[in-house]
Amino acid sequence: MATPREGESIQIHSYKHNGHIHRVWDETIVLKGTNNIVIGGNDHTIVTESDGRTWITREPAICYFHAKQWFNVIGMLRTDGIYYYCNISSPFVYDQEALKYIDYDLDIKVFPDMSYILLDEDEYEQHSKKMHYPEVIDKILWRNVDHLIHLIRHRQGPFSPNFVNKWYKKYLTHRG
């Protein structure tokens, strides 16, 4: 597998289990790129939905992807604190076209006080039936929901107190 280079601008492609494109982030600057971890930063980047609609992100964000974990985390820097949006997803792959992953519908939104809510369980149930998620995938995904909640509660990994701020400072050096 290719590895994105620090300072490189990449796209992020999110797919659904059936292989259809879900969402594309036009530009993210790689802050760290290894075989296992990609950390990126973006701000006011264009996002294209599967139906062709576009929108622009409203605030700076630090994105955390892991090649062996079934989730990714976006830390959004807002005036009232850092909000996290966690996608339950396949591990990422990078193929020089883009960083790619499968979005499995379940999301966890984390607030600046580290309280959180699990989102889109109904969407998960619908897509699980429609796209025939295998039982083994279902078990992996729910195990990763539990692991993510553990990281949130213990402020570990991308939820560590200085994680987002540290990488945001590095993002600013690349942005110029």
TrEMBL record:
Reaction(s) catalysed by this chain's protein: a ribonucleoside 5'-diphosphate + H2O = a ribonucleoside 5'-phosphate + phosphate + H(+); a ribonucleoside 5'-triphosphate + H2O = a ribonucleoside 5'-diphosphate + phosphate + H(+)
The coenzyme or cofactor needed here is: Mg(2+)
Catalytic activity, EC:
3.6.1.15, 3.6.1.6
Name the residues that bind Mg(2+) 2. Answer: D105, D107, D120, E123
Catalytic residue list: R23 (proton donor)
Q: What Pfam families has UniProt attached to this entry?
A: DUF402 (PF04167)
Q: Which family does it belong to?
A: Belongs to the Ntdp family.
What protein is this chain from? Nucleoside triphosphate/diphosphate phosphatase
NCBIfam families the record matches: PRK13662.1 (NF010183)
Main function: Has nucleoside phosphatase activity towards nucleoside triphosphates and nucleoside diphosphates.
Broadest EC class? hydrolase
Ranges for domain DUF402: 18-155
Keyword annotations of the record: Hydrolase, Magnesium, Metal-binding
Keyword Transferase on this protein?
A: no
Q: Does the keyword Flavoprotein apply?
A: no
| Binding-site residues, Mg(2+) 1 | N87, D103, D107
Q: Please give one Gene Ontology molecular function term for this protein.
A: magnesium ion binding
State the organism's lineage: Bacteria, Bacillati, Bacillota, Bacilli, Bacillales
